[in-house]
Design goal:
The complex is a heterodimer of chains A (237) and B (285). Chain A has one domain: 3-Layer(aba) Sandwich (Rossmann fold), CATH 3.40.50.300. Helices cover 38% and strands 27% of the residues of chain A. Chain B is an all-alpha fold. In chain B, helix 2 packs across helix 9 and helix 10 crosses helix 11. The interface between A and B is medium-sized, with 28 and 21 residues.
Chain lengths: 237, 285
């Protein structure tokens, strides 16, 4: 068994009295792509937010590369190499495309050469952004904003990407472009934890899968092992 | 013609000062989402501190603004960390009432310590002739200081990596954390910059205007009208708003009646709040 890059045990997430994640145990092996799927309201987004430090954990522990990181704030986890690509596209809309991309450079104190290399890399993945460097992020189309948020996460030189519903509300052609990037990242050694409501999309890039329902993990296994019937069962039961 | 040029000159000079007066308010709102209803008393505290330091160290009165800025920063930081931080940001009314209360406390402390009279920092008043117009030397110095302070603030915000982080936090604190920005630290820095500017504004005011314990009221009205006019949290809007207000105020005072100055400002304030609550420029920049 390969080493895990990210492991979380019995994670619990609450909004006041409301329990969003009751108990979730999840393991992402180094260099792998793992899908986290499940119906709307299952707690997938909450779990991802907890794993990236955006939401506090009400219980449970987590480890990054065998080091315990439970309770660390998001900026520390981000600097360690855990990059969240949040749902609903959150670029810094009042800032330009280039400024958005440079923020991780500033917060990680990258040197100039490193920064230029990263910038060339993300522009090669999303040439559209290169044409728009001076444009305000808020004036980009939805698809371009999603590209920018993915590119911004890649600027951090992440070791693991936590991606929340990248396909949400986007045209199929844009979804396809974004999904073409994921295997490339995997080939570069970046691990991925991908949340999707659409199981077909997620399973197309991920080798293993967790299914979540009502705040709990109800299935885990290889992507090839889950049948359509089983999925339907988890989504509809 | 001569009068017109004179009014325009004064409007421009005071316009720069008004940018400084409103900038701290605008910045603290834009980044920390605090509508600082104690801005008035804090401005005046800045003025009194400048006076105190000038009396203590003597010399060029404008130099006393620097220690006054530092005192105001300490007061602002303490106010935030021992009080404001405990009021949830979504409870705006509690925050406003708390700050109005603090404003009263501060005004009365100043009254107790300094008495009800005016204090002023005397430096030689001179008039420079420039063609038809007279330039008031105190207005000129106040304007120059304001331009420098505002320019430095904008350079920090728009030309440095720290400024980019501050703007990112203002735009979206959650996303800022995700890209590795320590949001708590940025809040602290923004708070310091905001109160440094408030202290500086108070100091600059005290060099051309005799301050009294309740003398912050006209300036806080100015500042709020400017910030509302420019759009809350919009810094470029604050600059534009400051000049509009300065022109309106000076023209009203000279061509209509001095006592209508604030009536006019309030009419603008009320009209903007009803018709264009996002400000003339609108949105956040």
């Amino acid at each position: 068994m390969t080493n895990a890059i990210l492991e979380a045990e019995s994670v619990r997430v609450q909004y006041g009295e409301l329990v969003a994640v009751e108990s979730a145990t999840i393991r992402v092996p180094e260099g792998d792509a793992v899908a986290l799927i499940g119906p709307n309201g299952a707690g997938k987004t909450s779990l991802l937010k907890a794993l990236s430090g955006v939401l506090p954990m009400a219980g449970g522990r987590m480890w990054y590369r065998q080091q315990e990181v439970t309770g660390r704030p998001s900026h520390e986890l981000s600097r360690m190499g855990i990059a969240l690509i949040p749902e609903g596209r959150l670029p810094f809309s009042s800032m330009t495309v280039l400024e958005n991309l440079m923020l991780p450079v500033y917060s990680q104190r990258m040197d100039k050469r490193q920064a230029e290399e990263r910038l060339d890399f993300v522009y090669s993945l999303f040439p559209r952004l290169k044409e728009r460097t001076r444009q305000r992020a808020g004036s980009l189309s939805g698809g371009e904003q999603q590209m920018l948020v993915v590119a911004r996460a890649l600027m951090m030189n992440p070791k693991i990407l936590l991606i929340d519903e990248p396909s949400l509300g986007l045209a199929p052609i844009i979804v396809q472009q974004i999904y073409e990037v994921l295997p490339q990242l995997k080939n570069l050694g970046v691990s991925i934890l991908l949340v999707e409501q659409s199981s077909t999309l997620a399973l197309s890039v991920c080798s293993s899968v967790y299914v979540m329902r009502e705040g709990k993990i109800v299935f885990s296994g290889n992507s090839s092992d889950v049948t359509q019937e089983e999925l339907t069962h988890y989504y509809l039961k | 013609m001569e009068l017109l040029l004179q009014v325009i000159t004064n409007s421009i000079l005071l316009g720069f000062v008004y940018v400084l007066v409103a900038l701290g308010l605008s910045l603290i709102f834009g980044i920390l989402h605090i509508v600082n209803f104690s801005h008035g008393a804090l401005l005046i505290l800045g003025g009194y501190m400048t006076y105190v330091f000038w009396k203590l160290i003597g010399g060029w009165p404008y130099a006393a603004i620097i220690p006054a800025m530092l005192v105001l920063t300490v007061v602002g930081v303490v106010l935030y960390y021992v009080y404001l931080r405990f009021i949830p940001p979504q409870e705006g009314l509690r925050q406003i009432l708390g700050l109005v209360g603090f404003n009263m406390v501060l005004e009365n402390v100043i009254l107790m310590v300094f008495g009800p009279g005016t204090v002023s920092i005397s430096s030689q008043l001179a008039f420079y002739r420039l063609g038809f117009i007279n330039i008031n030397s105190k207005y000129l110095t106040a304007a120059i200081l304001s331009v420098i302070l505002v320019a430095v603030t904008f350079l920090i915000l728009y030309r440095t990596s720290l400024g980019a982080k501050i703007r990112a936090v203002a735009d979206n604190p959650t996303a800022a954390g995700i890209v590795g920005i320590n949001v708590t630290k940025i809040y602290f820095i923004a708070l310091c910059i905001g109160f440094l500017l408030t202290g500086a504004a108070g100091g600059v005011i005290s060099t051309y205007y005799a301050v009294t314990p309740t003398g912050g009221i006209p300036f806080v009205i100015l500042a709020f009208t400017i910030v509302v006019l420019g759009g809350l949290g919009n810094l470029l809007g604050t600059v534009i708003g400051a000049f509009i207000i300065s022109f309106v105020q000076n023209f009203t005072s000279v061509y209509l009646a001095p006592e209508l100055e604030f009536v006019m400002l309030f009419i603008i304030f009320l009209a903007i709040v009803v018709a264009r609550p996002q400000g003339l420029i609108g949105g956040k920049a």
